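We give the entry.
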Amino acid sequence: IGNTVLHILVLQPNKTFACHMYSLILSYDRNKEGPASLELIPNNEGLTPFKLAGVEGNTVMFQYLMQKRKQSLWSFGPLTTVLYDITEIDSWAEDQSFLELIVSTKKREARQILDLTPVKELVSLKWNMYGRPYFCFLALFYILYMVCFTMCCVYRPLKPRTGNRTSSRDNTVYVQKMLQESYVAYEDELRLVGELITVIGAVVILILEIPDILRVGAAKYFGQTILGGPFHIIVITYACMILVTMVMRLTSTTGEVVPMSFALVLGWCNVMYFARGFQMLGPFTIMIQKMIFGDLMRFCWLMAVVILGFASAFYIIFQTENPENLGQFYNYPMSLFTTFELFLTIIDGPANYDVDLPFMYSVVYFAFAIIAALLMLNLLIAMMGDTHWRVAHEQDELWRAQVVATTVMLERKLPRCLWPRSGICGREYGLGDRWYLRIEDRVDPNKHKMMRYTEAFKVQDRDNYGKDSEKLEINRDTLCKKELSALSLSRNTSRTSSHRGWEILRRNT
């Protein structure tokens, strides 16, 4: 019951009352230091009161709990060294990491905890010492891997076509080699080494991604932008396309260009994932994700309806015409593709001035130009501009959350020998087996003294203003005269009562 009450207090809107009641309940806890302490008992979701405060974005309760856990080591003048308990914060030995819970929650208030002590210092320590070097090395390794795969695709086994053309529009010159013909020369053996590296990399990607999907859940793993959800979809699809290409090569099945081309596009697009390691490029990846999976997905439904309708109209109009004079609409699939290009203004309206075009083509194309080029494209630009404005106001916050998510990901993937635990064990200071982070803080007494003077003078000015406002309400008929006298009165009072205090404050500063 006591643990349930603690969880309820974390969710209370009155944070000051919740903190006092939290302390009152813990004062009756008989197992304050043991594993059966009320603060260490999780709820049905596996969250302790401390983790629940982080997930809910309750910064007041989080700071209150951290103040209870800190240990003052020594103090010398303005310098103070404090040990902060990071046992539940550090993701090194936690199955359900506190940092991962913060970046995966949908509440923006939770990300503000990343700027609080000691979370900010812990993340900075992990990222600067281990996260950034490993992440840059991983980015370089992935780019070299993609270069290897691209070269294997460029020099894939092809041979000249031997059969005759079946149509005047048939433009095929080379065809795919059979498996027995693909690995004969020395150049084929070099390509085979690159293909083996590509397949091994695809298998490693699947081995690393599948356990996280099973641990977190597909909806949460692919749906969180900060965790890199869209990029996880891209890299898993890329690995599957590589394996499909391998199977088609081994079985001598024609058409391997389809999964190979998909794999090239997806693999190189995944390079944008490594932009999150840089503060200048990280927020732009979030903007791209939000625009693609937010604005563009909604816009594609409208675009599909418009293209389908006008492409059908164009095909019907040119169905009776000679396709050699204007071949952009010679069949229905080509009409859809041509209309798509017209929609994005990639090409101009097809026209052949040597022949007479149908009159309805001009009418339909006029309506299409008004709807597509003027209305819908400007609507898409406005939607993307609104998304850019919203993300730009929180880009620094989102980038820090990206850094935390990347740090936790690397810490889980890398071996323990390459990523030692951060902090200091409490046994060195006689504090048990819990881990602490030492932070040095400098307290400037003059600064706090000046702040107290400033607050005192502000209160005095507010009192003087209150007295002046009471005098202004005496006679409503002469309101203009009273406003002028109030202005002169406020100047006189500010120069007499609080003017001396402000002069003292300026001289001390």
